Amino acid sequence: MTTFPLVSPDWLKSALDDPSVVILDATYHLPTMGRDARSEFEAERIPGARFFDIDEIKDSNDPLPHMIPDAETFRRAAEALGVTDDSTVVCYDSYGLLSAARAWWMFRLFGFDRVSVLDGGLKHWKACGYPTESGPAPDAPTGALSVHFRPELVRRVDDMLDNLKEGPGSAFTVLDARSAGRFAGTEPEPRAELRAGHIPNSLSLPSAQLTDPETGRVKTVQQLQTLYEAAGIELGRDRVVTSCGSGVTACALAFGLFLLGDTNVAVYDGSWSEWGARDDTPVETGVPGG
Hints:
With 290 residues, the protein is α/β, with parallel strands linked by helices. It folds into 2 domains: 6-149, Oxidized Rhodanese, domain 1 (3-Layer(aba) Sandwich), CATH 3.40.250.10; 152-275, Rhodanese-like domain (Oxidized Rhodanese, domain 1), CATH 3.40.250. Helices cover 28% and strands 11% of the residues. The chain has helices at residues 9-14, 37-43, 71-80, 100-109, 121-127, 157-166, 180-184, 221-231, 250-259, 271-275, and strands at 6-7, 21-25, 50-51, 88-92, 115-118, 154-155, 173-176, 203-204, 240-243, 266-268. Strands 1-5-4-2-3 form a 5-stranded parallel sheet. Strands 6-10-9-7-8 form a 5-stranded parallel sheet. α7 links the parallel β7 (173-176) and β8 (203-204).
């Protein structure tokens, strides 16, 4: 089956009876929202979907939130969700792109490319009048999944610190997906223990700008291009590493760049949850050029 990075509800509806298509609800809510994504999944989901728990498919030994697991842990978790070498995976969330892109990125990180995001997520699916179901997740068939880790798609704190030493014309450009206020340091962080501000020399593009607020659908390629260029990214030239609060919405920015043809965007997995908590990581406030 041909896989596209972004698929429509119409496409997915036509594929509901295809056993090779694995549908994953990857909804994640910020800790401050007080919502339970798994309970919401059991109350209403796309038929046949299983729950991709970002807070469970992680490195359980790392104190930072939902850091990537090792390849074997990811393989076991994906197989438990019914993903095999012959699968086509479609990820969605209840917002449109907020966390579905995290699951998309994780599959790519571990060498699986037949993975897509549902345009507009559950919100757009329901707006199209398509059915939902409730109750416990359906049983997953058993099968084998091959994985291989792609280190070029992730960055660690040491990589980010080394990049600052490069100065002007550094090895990569950091693009931050948090809100403009959090980037500037004028809004509080959801995690109270973190400093306010951003990684020096980084640029800002709030991930919410990538989707239509009414429908949850991803904006057109032309609109995305305008957004990234307005943020200061030289498309086709800059090497970009995306960052956010805890490595989730950074994947939405990576997804947007993927739609624009940049397939090698890396994500700083620790993001501000790591950078903002340490005392050896420099912080800037304000806006670029401000």
